[in-house]
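Handoff note, outgoing to incoming analyst
You'll be picking up this chain. Sequence as last confirmed:
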Amino acid sequence: MTDAGYHMSAEEFRLQGKRLIDWIADYHEKRVVDLPVLSRAEPGLIQNELPERAPERGEPFEAMMQDVDEILLPGITHWQSPNFYAYFPANVSYPSILGELLSAGLGVQGMLWSTSPACTELETRVLDWIAKLLGLPEGFRSSGDGGGVIQDSASSAALTALLAARERATGYQSNERGLADHPGLVAYASTQTHSSVEKDARVIGIGRSNLRAIDVDESFAMRPDLLEQQILEDLAAGSTPFFACATVGTTSSNAMDPLREICRKHGIWLHVDAAMSGTAAICPEFRFIHDGVELADSYAFNPHKWMFTNFDCDCFFVADRAALIRTLSILPEYLRNRATEAGAVIDYRDWHVPLGRRFRALKLWFVLRHYGAEGLRYHIRRHVAWAQAFASWIAADECFELAAPAPLNLVCFRLRASDARNEELLERINQGGKMMLSHTKLDGRYTLRFCVGQTHTEERHVQEAWRIILDEAKAVFSFE
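Most recent structure output, in case you need it:
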């Protein structure tokens, strides 16, 4: 057999590709709604079903898909189920899947403009579209000093912002000498800020002890007065405050930090993390969540959470792209080219940590062009309305209580009972297989989270979820 004989032929690719598209469509249209939402696999179950060595001889595609059905699907938690209300949405859509397929088919490596101009220029244009759709300030667009770039996640966006903030605070000296000359750098986040910021603080070298956790108010939003107090204390101690992260929609409770009151105090870099909730700003009536965002140095949200775009896709905007480039640009000889040296193009490798980058803008472009702003607003408004209806049912039932305000599509609630009873309720709901919730702790108390945002969720699914919750709550109380 020749080397070429080991490749899949174009004819077989066409045949199996069509079958795979049918499999995916059937999964979304027919199968996923009936599968247990939470995987019931025990640790090691999937691995034990797989051979210990790779096959010596190639196997037919049909055999691979048979193993997908028989081995892998039992180990899948079905995030695309209309009955998935846990964590946050991860709502893929058909146009996004097709965009990802096209990206894989083209196999573009978009590290430089010159390595594929379309990859860079489409991304620039699409991120400008997004900035306008969300009503973000003009400074975050490429026509000015700032601009947007697609990162893999909000965690990476926060890391990039921290790096740029660190370098700006040190006069870009730590790029050369490290942090030896700057031991007193201090960053700030609320006690409700996503845990990735703590990890990022470790990665950039300031350490967890130099990330100050600012307390929150009764709605779990950061208290600006305590932030100011902590900054003044650190300045008095000879430290250098350099970064603050404000959150638009915290992971635990969807709390909204007061951006305008936090603002850019004492010259520190203000980063806004709007991972899930930022999508809501496509609707003008929800843009209250962005009040004061024009005061930020950077902003990030994830279309891969609530905007029908499959993971990974984070939109990261900066007001001053020069700060990113000074922080992250390294130009070895093998990457030199005329376009870059002329300063006429954007090289997105200078806007984040990795050198290599995929053509992520394709799937986002497909989503925007398929749905249009009108279609996106239609679905966002429905999700928020159904979540608000669910919140009203909780508030009206004497067995339950709301654990936090519910401004958008996340409702935090609990039984008027012990933590043990609430934990038991969650366990019964998830093990039943018909739906899935997740939990957090608010004010130290076990709290259930109900997040509406999946692509195929309809009002009837939310109503059925409430019925299941009521039935399981009765079963929990029947043991008392």
